[in-house]
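Form 7-S
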Amino acid sequence: MTKSLFPPLPALTTERREWSNTRHGISRSDEYAWLRADNWQDVFRDPSLLDPAIRTQLEAETAYQTALMADTAALRESLFKEMRGRIKEDDSSVPLKDGPFAYGSSYVTGGQHPRFFRTQRDGGERVILLDGDKEAEGQAYFHLGSVDHSPDHQQLLWGYDNKGSEFYTLRVRNLAGGEDLGDVVPDTGGGGVWNASGDGFFYTRLDDNHRPSRVFFHRIGTSADEDRLVFEEDDAGFFVSVGGTRDNKWIMISIGDHETSEYRILRADEPDATPQLVAARETGLQYDLEEGGDVFFVLTNADGAKDFKIMETPADNPIRDNWREVVPHEPGRLILSVMAFRDFLVRLERKDSLPRIVVRERATGEEHLIAFDEEAFSLGLGGAYEYGTDVIRFSYSSMTTPAQLFDYNLRTRERTLLKTQEVPSGHNPDDYVTRRLMAPAPDGELVPVSLLHRRDTNLDGTAPCLLYGYGSYGMSIPASFNTNCLSLVDRGFVYAIAHIRGGKDKGYAWYENGKRAAKQNTFTDFIAAARHLVAEGYTSHDRIVAQGGSAGGMLMGAVANLAPEAFGAIVAEVPFVDVLSTMLDDTLPLTPPEWPEWGNPIASEQDYKTIAAYSPYDNVAALPYPPILAVAGLTDPRVTYWEPAKWVARLRDRSTSGNPVLFRINMDAGHAGASGRFSRLEEIAYTYAFALKVTGKDAAVP
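Output:
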């Protein structure tokens, strides 16, 4: 890649200040540690409190990247219009039935945020319950949390975040009059669960370190200061959430980290009761509960069931001694989730790197599979509001097939197409090809790679390629339909997803072999995917733009250090690149709960050394780095802004290539970027313009 594609501006410099730290007898220095705001908790609530020196540096970064990308303004506008043209602006969901009503969401033409509505159960006039665009008026950032109607259909519980810091405020709306009540509950996780009578709700409250550690019950008409504390978790390494069941009988309090879980339950009609422990936490034991009438179904890895099995236990005494196996463990078949209905048990699982839905009759144990034909695809199990139904909802798409929404009759096995995603500007699936490749990793493992390209793209090594990866927390990236990436594909790009270790694409072992001491496999898998795409003639190394966000941004930083020559450019969005510093800072929101994923370098010298060996910031060296774009948000509580700010400064200091390093920070947003569907498209257009610029690709659509 040549730096001549960018204006010949002098590289931006960042002030260096001495700072050092010693742990386990190991010393390290950090000349950019001063970019971390000491008052970060206050900044999340009020960004104007940011240290002026830090703000000045971030504003200089904005001016620098603006100048370097100035010549892409017309291209960005063109990309934005293309992507917006693929969106049905007045789109609407298919309402889900619940009692006398059916509930759904919709957008209006030009609207940024969803509206929530209901109709009579079998159709009729739509009544708007909440208008997201109206609520967002006059705010630089606005994001809706969950929206949930009460069991008696008289009230609506809804949440919003207007800073990007994910401190959500909850409100209650009277659906008869359409006005919000006086109930205002701040600093929550974004949603709540109604009790059975609908005169109150349970919710999680965030502490000063942005951790959901407490569950409260709020009774309608009272002050939030009077809310009853239902449960409090003392271990900072465990996060707490609260949920309900489909028949509104139970409140479930879930406590867990990345490898251990625990549940406490109480009846929804007894909000003042003390939660009952189901199975005490044991390190490595994971379980989820699904209510099924007089029983709970338990999805668990107990007894060595690495890819999970399903158990059953009496609802009135669900302790572990009463768990009985229903669906046994099958190595290589990872059970992802389970939904219980009166007569059926439905599970979503992954086998041979592909998702599938399995339906089981509760009375007989007979099972059948909902089958699909494509080589690579994505499934979503939407279920239903109602427990007694025979009809569930699921979605299907592939990289060439727009999303389809189906109702499925569990008894008759009839599949009814409800909706196909519309692409107003047009889309012909026959113009595209999707494939699944298997890239050989250095240790012999085969890494799945899903890819999409136009049928008329020349596969002679000259095509540019955007290669996406994540590879952490067991998250799998689906091979789903993405209208945005068509703006690259239609310009001759190959769009590829590397299903690397650290995800669960090939079962739970695929995750285990990409974490802690085995984390290097995540990075070498991604590099192997890039090299395989080159070997197969899809692209060449100087034409590959690597992309990843959050922990995928850490992946970007790591592969840049390990194999800078393998990539023509790198896009790191909200990148978790200062892994060692963050895991050493137990005041940060996610640090204690993340120790099972990365290791605890405070307590363990070996964990310290393991993380230090790959932490992108700590391993920036005198290497020929390709052009790099980092993207972040000031109020991000998950990956704090100073991680990419420090990283790009050190990259500029040490890179031997002279290629530009750009840092684009949104001063009005957090981890998810700009709020509103069109504002988000503008950010994607910027990223794609960077990819087109660095590959020297003609911006015109063929």
